[in-house]
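[audit] Reproducing an earlier prediction to check determinism. Same input, same settings, fresh worker. If the tokens differ from the archived copy the diff job will pick it up downstream; this log only records the rerun itself.
[audit] input (286 residues):
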Amino acid sequence: MRPCQESVKRFSWQQVQGLKMSARQCQVVFTGVLREGFDRRQGIRLLSEKFGLDFAQIKKLLSSDFPVVKTCDQIAEGEKLVQAFWVTGWHAEVRCSDNAAENSSIVRPASATVRLTADDGSCSVSVPGCWRVFDDLNQRAVLQAGSLENNEFMVVLPQRVEDFPSAPTVEEYCHAQLSQCAAQLYQAAVSRPPEKLQIDTGTGFFGELLAEVDTVPVQYLVACIGCDDRIYTLFLWCEQSIFSGRRREFDQLIASFSAVAEYGSHKNGKSSESTAPDVFSQAALA
């Protein structure tokens, strides 16, 4: 098993080559992510009807990785196309760049979120529509998603309370998660000790830690939520320089998390019973 630092390095800090854009030029990017409530067949049909695309064109669009579908000089022009994709059930985004200032921004449509449900049906969460599902961020995660373009990620790990010799409180568990992860990461330290999380159901605590990956300062938000006989840990991270801007998005994601106390048989072998009984969780291992 690999330290979580290696797991993070593989995805979070991958260099993504983008097309050069002239000053203040915007690009409309198709994410390939369906809106909640739309299925793939319906989305393909609506793409054909709305944009007059044939099967080959739709296949190329869906098989490409964040293809640029239009370049425009005005954000408003790009937003109109994003809205057109929204109507057909697909997420798109406007990415604008000012090379003179060496900065860029992403414009997302309102309410652009999708609901992800664990394969075993144990929990679900709403994530930004531009995020994609991964399967290699952590091998024990029941949910894992993020954006390579924006360097922001999430994994959800479950742990059965009965696995411990003496059941910890959620606050104790959160403290242990922060400490264990900090011990595994390079130049890491807990920057915010556990605090009570304001949630509608269950008991939750959250904390933060700082680390360095490939010389890049990274900041983690770690939330632990107790649900009946399990405690779920949500790890969210991004570059430290943009963490404050992502914090609201991360808070909304945590608030949207929902767990099912009794969810029956597990699918695809992703059972929370697979976590090791002699440690608080395998959060620091992938």
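[audit] rerun output stored. Observation attached for the diff report: The radius of gyration is 20 Å.
[audit] end
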